[in-house]
Amino acid sequence: MTSIQNSQTSEKMANTMVWLTASLLVLVWTDASAAMDPQKVFKYYKAMKTKYPLNNMYSMALRIQGPNNNEDPSSFFQGLDSVNNVKRVFQQDRVFVSDRVMAARPRPNEWTTDHAEARVANLLRSWYNQNQLNRDWILFYVKASPCATKCADPKHPGNILGEIAKLKKWSRFAFVFSDVFQPNPNNQNAQGKVFQFTEEDQKNALKQVAKRIGRRNIFRCNNNTCVKCFNKNGIDTFCISG
Questions:
Q1: Which helix (H) or strand (E) holds 218?
Q2: Low-confidence stretches of the chain (pLDDT beneath 50)
Q3: Which of 65, 156, 170, 186 could staple 69 via S-S, CB 3.0–4.6 A?
C-alpha cells in the first residue's frame, strides 16, 4: 500500500471516528436527564389536578424542590397560589407566572394559535438558576399530547419543539400529558368527514418530542397511574390511543 493510500485510509478512519463520536454525543445529550420515578410523578400529578382543577386545554409547569425535599406533595402545594388566582390571569389572556408555578391557555391570534405549552416553555428562563437547575425538578404538564401536524412537526413554523427543549436545562424533569390529542370532531371537511390522527401519527409526534428532550421522562397520566411512554419495546400503546 502506498503512502497516499495509507493517508487516505487514515483520513477515512478519522472521519468515521468523528462521526461516531458526534453521534454518541447527541445520544448522551438527548437522554442526559435523570430518569424520573413514575410513582413520584404520579403523586405530584394527582396533587396538581386536585389543587388546580382546570378544564379545557391548558399547560402548567411546576418547579419542585428536590430531590430529597418535599416528597409529600401536600407540603409543596400548600403555599402555592389558589386556582382562582390562576383563572383570573387566564381571563386576561396572560400567562400565570410565580416562583413555583407557570400556567397558560392557548391564545388565538390573527393567523394562528399560540400553544399553551409553548407560552409556558417560553418563560422557563425566568427560573434559570444554576443551584435550582441542579436541585429542583420540573413537572411540565399539557392536557393533550402534541399534535402531529403542527406542534410536533419539525417542518411547521408553529411547532413547539424548540420551546420544550428548554426542559433540558434541568437535570430532572417530567413531560406529562393526560389526553391523546385528536382534532375537534366538529371540524369536518367538505365531504362531512372528521380528520383523525392514527396511532402511527401519534407515535411520530412523540418521537419528535423525544428527539428534543429524551425518551426517559415522557409520561401519560390519568386518575390511576402514570405510564412511561417509551420502553424497551418502543412506545406504550397507552400513550397513543384512547
A1: strand 218-221
A2: 3-30
A3: 65
